[in-house]
Specification:
five-stranded parallel beta sheet; single chain; alpha/beta; Rossmann fold; DHBP synthase; 2 domains; 383 residues; eleven-stranded mixed beta sheet
Length: 383
Amino acid sequence: MKTRVLKTDPLRPDAAVIDEAARIIAAGGLVAFPTETVYGLGADALNGRAVRGIFAAKGRPADNPLIVHVAEPAQLPEVAQHVPEAVDALARHFWPGPLTVVVPRRPEVPDEVTAGLDTVAVRVPDHAVALALIRRSGRPLAAPSANRSGRPSPTEARHVWEDLQGRIDLIIDGGPCGIGLESTVLDLTASRPVILRPGAVTPEDLAPVIGPVDVDPGAEGLAGGEPGAGGPVRSPGMKYRHYAPRTPCVLYEGPPEAVAEAVAARLPAEPARGRRVGLLATAESAGRWEADAVRIAGARSAPETIARSLYRCLRELDEAGVDLIIMEGIEPAGLGAAIMNRMRRAAGHRTVAVGPREPAGRGGPRARPAPLHPLSRPPVHPG
């Protein structure tokens, strides 16, 4: 298969580009397109054969459900039924935007989209190109991230090309994505809403709109908190290893000064072991360290800058030919919770916790994943 790339203005999409992409969708083909979060790989959500093409192109496990993208809330009944009242309030506040809701599915939605569940995940993206494509296609689009499963999600068209050239029909190049992390996934089918995957819409954002929400234990990305291990996967990003470069990673977590000292103590030993080291650092800490390759993801004081560049930096460190990537963690609060979820999964739970132990809560001290040898990679299930 020959993959074409067509460029367009992200704010004023070229009608000819959108028309060609919609033609491919109508024919059952696959189109990668930009959203405000990451690039998505789209197919007609009501065409089971087309949706199977997504799984084949990505190497994605069939039990990992997809998110359906619609152009407006009024399109929701095409894929969902018995929609909870909370969706109206959420749509007014957060759509279009990086919030996905899990609601009861319509029987017309193929099992390939939902992994056989009786629910479907739906959102309205906040990107002119994505909205134009959905409207021109006249169909809801099933669209996971446009990368090979397990790899860092694509935030630029070139990332899609690196992973999927020869596997899909078309890439719409609409420039870099503005947010850089996948959407928040909120399950509305439980007695109380539950965040299954953290994103730019945080529990603090949701509470004033629909009241308090719970956070699934697996949403933190901690070892031992993997949801789906004993049951079905309810959301993308929950069960399998995700967001990972090919190079082994280790994540340092804790107070910034303690992390800085621990990383500084480790770095001199790596060259003696014959290892080239890449560093993924914050702007506040990068000047304290030297390594074979350094990428500044952004500032701890502005976590949105880290979110926007995280996946790009991981891909660039992969390309630098290092043997180990050391990542500097940040405080897992607000948007930082979503960033740390991605970092922990990218590291495959190779996490080193430094600094004072967190105070005990009702259940005692919070468990931390045990440090693993940085070059011993766990088995990777494509996900």
